[in-house]
Structures are given as C-alpha cells and as structure tokens.
Queue: 2 jobs
Job 1
Amino acid sequence: MSDHLIVGGGIIGLLTARYLSQTGASVTLLERRQIGRESSWAGGGILSPLYPWRYAEPVNALAHWSQQHYRALTDELQADTGIDPEWIQSGLLILDHEETAHATAWAAKAGTRLDLIDHDTLGRIEPAVSEHPGSGLLFPEFAQVRNPCLLKALRQDVQARGVCITESAEVSHLLHESGRIRGVGTADGDSIAAEQVIIACGAWSASLLRELGQAIDIIPVRGQMLLYRGKPGLLKHVLLHRGHYAIPRRDGRLLFGSTLEDVGFDKTVTEQARHELERAAQALIPAL
C-alpha cells in the first residue's frame, strides 16, 4: 500500500508526485488514459493569467508564487532528465490599449513591471505585427514553457524517483472506511488502497468529489488552437489581442488560439473554429 495515491496524471498530478517522492514517501499515480494528454498537453504554456486584473487575488497570488519557482524547476528537470522544458522569458505583450488603466493599476499594486509600448516601439520590437493595434502593454518578466516537453521531463523524473504510474486506470469511486478515504475503486473493478488519496484529475474531479457532498465548480471547456510551422524569430513575445494569443516557440512553431466552448468533454475540432482563428491570426500577423 502506498503512502499517497494520486488520481490524475496531468501536470498537477505529476508535480505533486515529484514533491512527495522527494520526501521519501511511496507514491502511486493513476491516469484514466495517457499521462499528460488532456488539458496539460493542450494548453499553451503561458505562465500567467492572460488578463491578470480580471482574476481573483488568490489566483494571481498562486500564479506569482509559481512564476518565482518555474525557472528553477525547469533547470532541475533538464539537468536530471536531459529534456529541456523550454522555459523562455518571452514577455507578454498585450495589444488592447483600452486595458491600459486596468493593467497599470494592477501592475502597481502587484509590484510587477509593466512597460507602455508606443506605436513606433511596437513596430521595432515586433515588426511582424500589423499596424492595427497601434500600441501595447508589455509585461517583460512573464514567461512560457513548452508544456509537452515539460510533461515528458516530469514523467521521466518521477519514474526515476520510484513513483508507480498506471495508465488506462479510470477511477470510478472512492473507498471509505471508518469515516476516512482509504483508497479508490476503478472502472475495471480493482480496489487500490493508500494512506492518503489526492484528487488531481481536472475537470473529472467534480464527479469524484460529489459522493463526498463536495460541489466544486470545475467544468470542461473546449479550446481549439492553430499550430503554424515557420522560421524562428517571427515573433519575440507572447502576444495577446482581443482575447486571442500567439505563442512563439524556440524552433519557429507558433500557436494561435483559442476558442472557449462549453461542449462538455467533446474534443472534436471544427472547421468553423479553424477559419475563425485563421482570420484573426492573419489580421494580427499578416505573414501567417
């Protein structure tokens, strides 16, 4: 029986497994399908809320703490595994001038550097961007990671630390004994005991916790994005404009997204989303 059983093999589950294993505890991690292939894989890897001033203070406090530790984490993972998670301090350049007052007030309160970028400077630092936005708000200290690489590094790291990973193990319910959670039951009929159970299965967490009378407001949202393959250096910063973002990777790939669709767990991609995203991407970055 493990000291800790983690339900969910996304980035939160893997990081939890990593830190617990560093204490010498025995850890088992169960993933309903494949490790890291749900929202952790599909995300863009921007290490900040897109418009931080629109979020509650606890969200920004957690993001700020994470931002202070991410580079050290990725350096450690690369040293231990040889896999580069591609932490890049690319900055976040917001091209919505109407957000200036909110952004300035938030940055002053949070103690975060914010540079106001005029039209000429924008053309110099990001010549591929269309002239339409006119000016920008640059958070130069914000960073990104390449989340698929981060997930690969984390998986290799935790397995080297002795974490037991089981894929295709869908947890269907929790096991109760004397008023405590003592393990989990799977859809295949297996019972797995543990001293402590940690729920880290994202949008699937609500269904597991419901049997405890805990109603949590976590729902699945579909986000579609485009992947362009281009030459390195087309963009230098992560861009944000009218709710769309462009994320340049080190090898020249560029992500552009995203839709936000309340369609449950449906991961089907649509031609409508593709065309809408293409129009927005080409309007912002004509070279695309």
Job 2
Amino acid sequence: EKNAHIRLEPASITKIMTAVLALEKGQLSDIVITSNAPLSAEGTRIYLEEGEQLTLEQMLYGMMLNSGNDAAIAIAEHISGSVETFVQMMNEKAREIGAKNTTFVNPNGLSEEGHLTTAYDLALISRYALLNFPKFKEIASTKTIEIPWQGQEWDRQLINLNKLLWNYEGADGIKTGYTSTAGSTLAASATREGWQLISVILKSDSNVSADSMALLDYGFANFEIKDVIEKNTRVSKENVKYGDPVELVVKDGFTTVVEKNSLPITQKIVINTEIKAPISKNETLGQMIFYQGDKKLGSVDLIATDDIKRKIHTYWWFWPLSISMAVYIPFRIMVGIRRYKRHKKRIRYVSYMKRYK
C-alpha cells in the first residue's frame, strides 16, 4: 500500500460505480434509448446514434469493455432521468459503501473539476461490485463480445482494454482508465486457489498493467486467507439476571486476509454490561473482536442460542403478592373453620329442638 488515501482523478475506473447503479436499479433486459446527450461525449465511444436502442446489458458491455463514454451517459439517463440526478446517486452510494473520500461529478470519468477519489475508495467500490453482482464479474472478465448495434460496422466487436485478461494468470477484471490529467489508471483483480485480490493504481506514467501484475504477485506471495471462526461456534455461557444461564454462539463466521508468518490472531469477548431475562433466541448479547497485535481485524456478534424466560419470583410484584397470599390463605382457612364450627353447632341445636318438640 502506498498513498492509498490521496485524492486523485480516477478516469474511466469511474464506470465501475456507474455499472453498480445500473445493475442495482435496472434490469438487464431494459431497453435503453439513446438521447442526443451521449453523442457529444468525448474520448472513447461506442458511437451510439440518437434514437438507437440497446438493452441495458449491451450498454454495460459497451461501457466496460470498450470504455464507451457515450454508453455511460446513456445508462445514467436511463436509470435516473438525468446525468445530474445519477451523479447524486453515485455519491450517495459511495458513502454507503464507505468510500468517504470520493466525489463523482460525471458517470464516465472524463476530467472535470472535483471529480476525485482514492485508490482505497476504488478498492472498496470494486469489492462491492464483485461481491454483489455476478453479472458485473462476468462483464469485467469478458475479453471480447460482439454487439449487434446499428452504429459503426467496424466497432461491433468489443475488445476489453484490460491487458491483464490475456497476460496474467487468474485475471478476471476490472477496468482501465486514462485521461491526459489523470494519467493511466487501473483497477485489476485476479483469483487463485479460491481467493480474489484487487489492486488499484492511479496517476501512473509508466506501464500500469505491469505495475498491477507486480502488486497482485506480491499479494498472492505474501498474504493468505485465514478462517478464524465458523458460524454458530459456541464461545461462552453467561449468567442472566432474573433467568437461567444462556449460551452464546457467533452469529457469522469470520475470515480475513493476513500476511504470511505474521503475528497470531487473538480474540476478545465483550459481553453487554448486564444481561437480563427475558431473552429471545438469536438476540445479540455481545461481540467477539479479533486482533493481530494491536491492529483490530474485525468483529462478529454473539447471539443467544435459546429463549430465556424471566423467573416468576424475580418480578417486583411477586413477593408482595406472595406475602399477601401467605396471610390471606391462613386467614381464609381460619374463617372457614369458624364458619364450619358455627354451622355444626347450629345443626346440633336444630336437631336437639326437633327431638324435644
């Protein structure tokens, strides 16, 4: 990692976010009708014509493989009605993902004042896209595809501009970029032995593909995946005020990437200050926090395995009621005995009177 949080121009890597919103808000079968606006797009294009109709899926291929700036504008207008509204959505989504140092001004990445992000933020956005949209991963890893549009005959076959797809083992994305002020940019990904790495390079004036390969090589050689704990692992048994003890399990498993031969991973259990009944099954009662040295790696929630009911004798009204009942019941018994004795005497008296009439 180097200068991961410096704000720079992303160029066409911007289109990763445009694709995210298209896949999240639209349907691949949507018909996107090209307005006049995309025709004035500068830089790389797929040469859309006004009134031309393509599916959203075809537009996405045109934008991601051939880096069509016109396709990005057409997608933005289709999803939100205007580029301005779409840009607002892009920035809202960036905040949601955690890309706090990103400000988008357009959907295609052409140089414009204030259109800035960081390598770290772009890695977060790329990760979000790859994890949540299988179609995004499919498009980003496609080398070539032919789109039957009515535009330029010679440009119907799209060729992905990402050289890593041809030259790097396991490469499966993501997006290239270039403008004269942004320099060469590249968000790249590769998968080996079941795990995927992402590298992001901004403001490169050298061979950005070679730099990306070197970064990915370093990642695969020096880091590994650690499955720290599995879902539903029992971790503790805690006393419960007003109820029986409760067993806690981890809600979700925890997996992380660590440097090989590095410090061991430790964990700390933090339980809610006071656990009181009643408790519902799956209620969150604490956390397990994972560390490597002083660095916090993450955490998982600890949840109850069962319902825990409150014991009846712990309610505030129980003892006053119990004492009242303790007094009331003997009193009723005594009253009953007295009534019985009086009733018995009366029976004897009546019986005696009848005998001597």
